[in-house]
Amino acid sequence: MRHDAFTAALGNPLELHAMIEKGLPVSLLDQVASSLGLKVEAMAALCGVSRATFHRKKADRARLGHFESDMLARYAALLNRAAEVFEDRGTAGEWLRTPQVGLGGAKPMDLAQTTQGYREVEKLLTRIDHGVYA
Description:
Mean pLDDT: 92
Number of strands: 0
Structural class: mainly alpha
Number of helices: 9
Low-confidence stretches: none
Helix content: 55-70%
Order of helices and strands: HHHHHHHHH
Distance between the termini: 39 Å
Shape: globular
């Protein structure tokens, strides 16, 4: 699967759901990590993939499991939303890795590990987009 096909699916919830159910290719971890300015092992850990499992799946060109794929899609969606708000993917990745006052000093990437935290990051991005940062 090409990264641009995955990125296009981020805008189509039903298509993205089907991709997640099938399992995303482990190679997408590299691509999303790079866009976020993270090491691939750190991205894998955020998605619940151990270092050993990541390297085994990468060597086998395997797919991620359902949960792992869902987490990866979550981070990619946040990156895309932040890139829309900040109009730059580099700035978006940096913002997602940096503690934010509007999130009680938490890093958006860390909060996004839970559904509730993900929603809070989305809300903050919406407020920033509308000029209401506090």
